[in-house]
Structures are given as structure tokens and as C-alpha cells.
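Write out this protein's structure.
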Amino acid sequence: MNMIDRQSRLSFLALALLSVAGAGLGWAAQGQTTGQGTDPAGSRPSAASSGGSAAPLSAVAQLGKAIFFDQSLSGSGTMSCATCHDPAHHYAPANGLIVQLGGPGLDRPGIRPVPSLTYKIATPAFSVGAENPAEEAAEASPMAEASGTALSQQATPVAGPMAGQPVVKADAPADNAVPQGGMFWDGRADSLEDQALGPLLSPFEMANPDAKSLYDKIKNRYGEKLAALFGNQVLDDQSMALSEVGFALARYQVEERSFHPYSSKYDAYLRGQVKLSAAEQRGLALFDDAKKGNCASCHLDKMTDDGQMPAFTDYEFEALGVPRNPAIPANADPRYFDLGICGPQRDDDFAHQPQNCGLFKTPTLRNAAERGVYFHNGVYHTLEEATRFYVARDTDPASIYPKNPDGSIAKFNDLPEAYRGNIDVIDAPMDRKPGQPPALNEAEIADVVAFLKTLSDGWSGDQAAKTTAQQQ
């Protein structure tokens, strides 16, 4: 096989993806894993609950699966992708640590909570403003093509643009330059492929010292499989070999249905399979109410007219002004600030624009009830605390922030004063003043939390039928 240039590589990948066409997306066959975390094949929901039948993984995705669970590819030799993205915990950490520990000795803390890998398939590339996907087609990453084919095979369509393509909001004015899309909290990676490679080289994650070291491990362990899939010449090109590794990891996330099962009670509710309880229904109403929770303005929760399931995010970035978390080791330095798009992990033109400082990507709320920490700095540990922050931040800041030495309230203490103008003080429920009643009282917070718990995957078709029968 001749050396694969970028265009022919994309054509090859497109042909490879056609191998799963007609069968839909499904879970991998039963098999052994080589790293931490639970193989999803052993505890996957039924096909009836997820809207399609299971199908075997393609050869590329099977390679990605092997790499995903392989601890030997880390600097410590004891950490895999699944260590922090455990399939048994919706591809999020299995513990409640605010930041995970990695590095060569598994003793180096990260700086942000590890996001879940679920529902990343529709994440657009990072962009600012409402752009036309057609104008960006020539710049689309390989994952745009990969995810596009996968999305077309979904038995239940999913909302959002294809990974690697910019998002367009129909109601966004042309002059509304809003950062949106990208992987990680700061949007610094444009595709699943790019995201998958990042932790392998991060000094506080899998901690390979450099790309050459990772390449040598990959060539030693997976060289034969890479050559069989992409041609012998791929092993002679470090950059291409690592790119194919990223692609294989991305294909695993695309094809493995447990990364995006759409099997929550709310999904069953949208399909007409179950009714919400009274508290859940009240919570949904508050979630949607523009003068109360106003959550749906960022966490989109309605099916589209063509039957696409909601992503529970608009992929946009916000500065919310959550309080500083002293439990993050990096925050022990009073001069250190996590500025989101402006760094410390991002360093490009967007990172040097003051209007982006303090902005973090709006996460999906799917499986939010299963998380141990909330917001980009993990300052809260329960959904009740996280919801209460939104309604008390401005009406009762003393309940949210610590005091300065002079007794004043250190409001917005996790963002330098120069950037506090970026914090949202316009949209409800964060548009109120001290002394005003909060947008939600404690009973209403409990109802919103009850609704959020319906977003956890694992609500089976049998459960839905049983519950519907009980309610009738």
C-alpha cells in the first residue's frame, strides 16, 4: 500500500465506516480488557431501551477499544483511558475526587474535574459566532466524516452538528460572536480524535514524556494491527501513526453505543413510553421557565421537529463566577487562576482575547446526577448545591462566597477583577440583586433535582412499560 496522504486517508476512512452501515451503532462483542474500568459489553442496556440492535465493532473501533483499556501506554504503566473514564460510571471517574491523580507516579493532581466522555459524538469544532458549516467543509477534521456516518446510522437521531464541524444556532444574530464547541472545558480540541490523544501526553494524566515515547509503545504493541488497517508505511511516519491511534479511539467512542445510549427515563418520556412523576414534571416546568430556572436556555431539552434527541447543551461558553475551590492544589497559589479559554491549558489567538477569559463550555446535563463534582472546578458535590448556586449567587452572596479580611464578601473570587465583566449577570436566574427572593425556593430546587435525575441512562424498556402500567 502506498504512503497515505491526507485526502486518500479520508477516503479510506470513509470506506471503512461504510462497513457498519445498515447495522446501526452497537456495542463491542464480549472480550477481555487490558486496563482499569469495566468493559461495557458486560452490562449494556437492552437494544429496546436504546432504539436499535447491537452490532459488532469495526476493526478500527476494536483497535480503539484495546487502546482505551491499555494501561501499558501510560507513563506509570498502570493507567488507561478507562481509569478516568470508567464505562460503569458513564465514562466518568469512578470516584468523587475533585481532580484525578496521574503522572509517572500517579501522584500528580490535575487542575479540573474530568468530564464524562458520553454524548461527545455531536460536539462541534470550536468557533466564535454563527458560522456556516458548508463554508468550513474543506477544513473539516477526519472525525467530521467519521461522526457524520455514525450519526446517519443512529436508530434514534441525535441533536447537534457533527463532530469537527461548527455549530449554528438558528436564532443567533450575525453580530453575536459567542464562543462555542470544542472538546475539554476550554474547547481546545476540535474533534474526538484530537481529544483522545491529549491525555496520553498530558504530564498529569497518562504522562508519556513525548510523542516519540508514545509512538514507540504504539508501534511495539499495535504495529501489526496498524499496518493491516492503514498500510505498512504508517509505521514509518510517527505523526501519521499517532493520528491513526486517535482516529481508532474516536471510532470506538462513535461505534460503542454505551457512549451515547439515550436510555434515560427522560428519553423514554420523550418517546411516549413513560410518564414523569409529579415532582419530575414540576421540575421540568421550572427547568424550562425563562423566569425561574431558565436552565433550558443553555441546556436544550426538547426533541427537534425531525425527531432528534436533545443534547442538554448548546455547546456555548459561559462565565458563571462560581466560588474558588481551595481543594484544588493549584489554587493554593493566590496568583493562579483557571481562565478557561484563556488558559492555562489553551494558548492560541482566542486565549489572548480578554472577552474569553473565565469562559467555560456548557456541559451536557445527561447523567449529571451520577457525577461526584460539579462545574469546571468541582466546587460543589451535589445537584442541590449546584442548583442553589444559580439562585443564591446574587440574592444571597454571603451564602456562596467567603469573606475578605475586611469583612466584605469576596464575590467572584475565582476570577481576576479585570475579567469579572465577562460574568453573566443578565440571564435569569442570575439577574437579581441582594435581598431579592431567589428565583427558586428550596421546594422548587428539590423538584428541579428530581427532574435532573431522570437524565441518568439505564432506564430500560421493561422499566418504562412497568411504570407506565402502574401509572395508568
